[in-house]
Write a structure and sequence with these properties.
Radius of gyration of chain B: 27 Å
Number of helices of chain B: 14
Strand content of chain B: under 5%
Order of helices and strands of chain A: HEEHHHHHHHHHHHH
Largest interface: A-B, 118 and 126 residues
Number of strands of chain A: 2
Helix content of chain B: 55-70%
Distance between the termini of chain B: 23 Å
Number of domains of chain B: 2
Order of helices and strands of chain B: HHHHHHHHHHHHHH
Number of strands of chain B: 0
Number of domains of chain A: 1
Strand order of the largest sheet of chain A: 1-2
Oligomer: heterodimer
CATH architecture of the largest domain in chain B: Orthogonal Bundle
Largest sheet of chain B: none
Helix content of chain A: 55-70%
Structural class of chain A: mainly alpha
CATH superfamily of the largest domain in chain B: MetI-like
CATH class of chain A: Mainly Alpha
C-alpha cells in the first residue's frame, strides 16, 4: 500500500502522519486532486506533450508559418542532419562551448569559493559582486559585452593594446567569436557555481581541516585529500546542472552573434533548432536536432548518475 | 585523532602541559594563514573584483558618454561631458516604459501563480495520502530534466493555433507550471515538526486553516527564497517571450532591448548601453536588498547537509 518516493533523501511522508487503517480517505484524495491537478495539467500540456510531439514533428517536413499541412518524410531530417557538411562544425561549437563553460566556471568558481572561505577583509562585499552578474538578464549582458569586445572601441582591445597585443577581431573571426561568447557566459554564470561551492565549503567538517593541519599536511595535499573529497556531492550536482544549462544557451548567442560569423561560426545545436524552425521554416528539421539534443542530454545524465552511484 | 609529534617549540607559545592536549598553536588556524598567504589572498581578491567590476564600470560609463567620446581611441575612463541624454533617448525611442510594464506584468503574474501552485501541490505531496503519489511526484520533478528547446516548436504551434501570439496568456501560461517549486516546497514541508501537523490533524483542522495558520507561518523563509528565484528567472526569461512577442505590445524588457540593439547597435552604443543598464537595475536592486534569501533558495536544492 505504501508508496516510496524515489529521487529524494527526504523521509517518506507516510512516516510523518499515522496511517488510517481504513486505507484511502476519499476526502483526502479529492483534496489532493484539486491541489495537484492545476500544476500537473500545465506540466503535461506544456512539457510532456511537446516532448512527445517534438519526436513526431521531427518526422515531417513542416513550415510553421504556412498553412500547408506537414509532409511525412520518415527519418529524412535525421539523415540530412548527419550528412550535412555544416553539422561537424555545429557539433564542435557545441562541444567546445559546453566543455569550456563547464570546466571554466567550475574551476574558477571553486577557486573563488576557496579564496573567500578564508577570513579576508571585505569578503562579504566581494561575494555579492561575484554573484551579481548571475541575476542580470543574459540578453542584457550579451548586448553590453558585444561592445566590451568591440575590436575597435571596446574594453578588451584597449586592455590588450596596453600590454602590446593587437586585439583579435571578435566579430569577424569565428574562433574568436566563439571565445567571446564562451567568456561572456562564464563571466555571467560563475557566481552560481561559486555560491553553491561556498555554501558547501562552509558546511564541511572543519575538524578534518584542523586534523590535517596538525598532521602537517601541505596545503595542496590538504585541498586534494581533505577538502575536495567532501565536496564530491556538490561537484556532481554542479557538473550536471552547469552542463545542462550551458548546453542550452540561447540568449547570449542570439544577441551577440546570431550564430555567425561566416554562417555558423558560433552556431550551436540549440541555436540551430531556433534558426531552422523559425527562420528557415524547417520546423521538422529543427525538431530532429532538438530530439538529438534531448537524447544526448539523457545519455550524459544517465552516465553521470551511474558514475556517481559507483563512487558511493 | 592526529599524531602529535615533533612540535617546533619556537612556534608554540602555549605552556608545556597543554602540549598533551591538542597543540593548537603549532600552526595557526587554517583560516588564519600566514602574512604571505594573506597578501596573496588579497591580490587574488583584487583581481577578482577587477574582473567583475571593470566591465560593469565600462558599461556604465559608456551609457553616459557622448557619441564621439564612445568612439574614442584609446578609451576614456570618465565621461566627458556627461550625456544623460542617452537615457532619455533610450526611454523615448523604444517603448521602454511599455517593456517595463510588460516585464512587471509577466514577472509578477508568473511569480504569484508559480508560488501558489508550488505551495498547494507540495502540500498535497507532503501531507496527503492518495494513490500514485510517488509516481506523480516523480513525474513532476522529471519535468526539470526536459530542456526548453525540445518543447518550443510544439508549444509555439499550439499557442499560435489558439491565436495567442502577442498576448500575455500566450507568454505566461506555458511557463506557469512549476517542478522546481513543488520539489523545494515539498522538501521544506517534510522538514517541519511532525507533532504540530499531527495535532492539527487530530483537532480536525481543515485544509485552509492548516495551510494558513499552521504550515505557512513556519514556511516564510523558504517561500521568500522560492519567490526571489522565480522573480529573477521570469524577469530574465528570453527564448519563449522572444518567440511569442514580435510586437511591442507584450514584449518584456530583454526582448525590447534586443530590438533597440537591432535598430541602433554598432552605430549608436550610448542609448543601447543606457537601456541595458536600465534593464539590469531593477533586478540588481532586488538582489542587493534580498541576496541572503535568494542565495538560500539556490543552495537549498543543491547542498544537503
Amino acid at each position: 500500500m505504501t508508496s516510496t518516493i524515489p529521487g529524494t533523501s527526504v523521509p517518506d511522508p507516510d512516516l510523518e502522519l499515522p496511517r488510517r487503517k481504513s486505507g484511502w480517505s476519499l476526502q483526502q484524495i479529492l483534496l489532493a486532486a484539486a491541489l495537484i491537478l492545476p500544476n500537473m495539467i500545465l506540466l503535461i500540456l506544456f512539457t510532456y506533450r511537446p516532448l512527445v510531439d517534438n519526436f513526431r514533428i521531427s518526422f515531417f517536413q513542416w513550415n510553421l508559418s504556412s498553412t500547408r499541412p506537414p509532409l511525412f518524410v520518415g527519418f529524412r531530417n535525421y539523415a540530412d542532419w548527419f550528412s550535412d557538411p555544416g553539422t561537424p562544425t555545429i557539433v564542435m561549437n557545441t562541444v567546445i562551448f559546453t566543455v569550456a563553460a563547464v570546466a571554466g566556471s567550475m574551476i574558477l568558481g571553486l577557486a573563488l569559493a576557496l579564496l573567500l572561505d578564508q577570513k579576508l577583509f571585505g569578503r562579504a562585499a566581494v561575494r555579492s559582486m561575484i554573484f551579481a552578474p548571475y541575476v542580470i538578464s543574459g540578453a542584457a549582458i550579451g548586448v553590453a559585452f558585444q561592445f566590451v569586445f568591440d575590436p575597435q572601441f571596446g574594453l578588451i582591445q584597449d586592455l590588450l593594446r596596453r600590454i602590446g597585443v593587437e586585439s583579435p577581431n571578435f566579430y569577424q573571426d569565428p574562433k574568436w567569436a566563439l571565445f567571446m561568447v564562451t567568456v561572456t557566459y562564464i563571466w555571467k554564470n560563475l557566481g552560481y557555481v561559486f555560491v553553491i561551492y561556498l555554501a558547501a565549503l562552509q558546511g564541511r567538517r572543519k575538524d578534518l581541516d584542523e586534523a590535517a593541519e596538525i598532521d602537517d599536511t601541505s596545503p595542496v595535499r590538504r585541498l586534494f585529500r581533505v577538502v575536495l573529497p567532501q565536496l564530491r556531492q556538490t561537484t556532481f550536482f554542479l557538473s550536471v546542472t552547469v552542463l545542462l544549462s550551458s548546453f542550452q544557451v540561447f540568449d547570449l548567442i542570439q544577441v551577440m552573434t546570431r550564430g555567425g560569423p561566416l554562417g555558423n561560426g558560433t552556431m550551436t545545436m540549440v541555436y540551430q533548432v531556433y534558426e531552422e524552425s523559425f527562420n528557415n521554416n524547417r520546423a521538422g528539421y529543427g525538431a530532429a536536432v532538438a530530439s538529438i539534443m534531448f537524447l544526448i542530454v539523457l545519455v550524459i545524465t544517465v552516465i553521470q548518475v551511474r558514475l556517481q552511484d559507483r563512487q558511493d | 585523532m592526529a599524531q602529535q609529534t615533533d612540535v617546533p617549540p619556537q612556534t608554540d607559545p602555549a605552556p608545556a602541559p597543554e602540549k598533551a592536549e591538542i597543540p593548537r598553536r603549532k600552526h595557526r588556524d587554517p583560516n588564519e594563514a600566514g602574512l604571505g598567504v594573506k597578501i596573496l589572498g588579497y591580490v587574488a581578491l583584487l583581481i577578482v573584483v577587477a574582473m567583475v567590476m571593470v566591465p560593469l564600470y565600462f558599461i556604465l560609463i559608456t551609457s553616459l558618454k557622448t557619441h564621439p567620446d564612445i568612439y574614442s581611441d584609446p578609451i576614456t575612463w570618465w565621461p566627458n561631458p556627461f550625456a544623460p541624454g542617452n537615457y532619455s533617448y533610450a526611454v523615448s525611442q523604444v517603448n521602454f516604459v511599455g517593456f517595463l510594464r510588460n516585464s512587471v506584468i509577466i514577472t509578477g503574474g508568473l511569480t504569484v501563480f508559480k508560488v501558489a501552485l508550488g505551495v498547494i501541490s507540495a502540500y498535497a505531496f507532503a501531507y496527503l495520502r492518495f494513490p500514485g503519489r510517488g509516481l506523480l511526484f516523480l513525474l513532476v520533478i522529471a519535468a526539470l530534466m526536459v530542456p526548453d528547446q525540445i518543447t518550443i516548436i510544439s508549444n509555439y504551434a499550439l499557442v499560435a493555433g489558439w491565436g495567442w501570439r502577442n498576448t500575455f496568456q500566450g507568454i505566461m501560461l506555458p511557463l506557469a507550471g512549476t517542478a522546481f517549486g513543488t520539489f523545494l516546497m515539498r522538501n521544506h514541508f517534510l522538514s517541519l515538526p511532525r507533532e504540530i501537523l499531527e495535532a492539527a490533524r487530530l483537532d480536525g483542522t481543515g485544509f485552509g486553516r492548516t495551510l494558513f495558520r499552521v504550515v505557512l507561518p513556519m514556511s516564510w523563509p523558504t517561500i521568500v527564497a522560492f519567490t526571489l528565484i522565480t522573480i529573477v528567472t521570469e524577469w530574465n526569461q528570453y527564448l519563449w517571450p522572444f518567440l511569442i512577442a514580435d510586437t511591442d505590445r507584450v514584449a518584456p524588457l530583454p526582448v525590447g532591448l534586443t530590438q533597440l540593439q537591432q535598430n541602433e547597435g554598432l552605430t549608436n552604443w550610448g542609448p543601447v548601453m543606457a537601456a541595458t543598464v536600465l534593464t539590469a537595475i531593477p533586478i540588481l536592486i532586488v538582489f542587493l536588498l534580498l541576496q541572503k534569501q535568494m542565495i538560500k533558495g539556490l543552495t537549498a536544492g543543491a547542498v544537503k547537509g
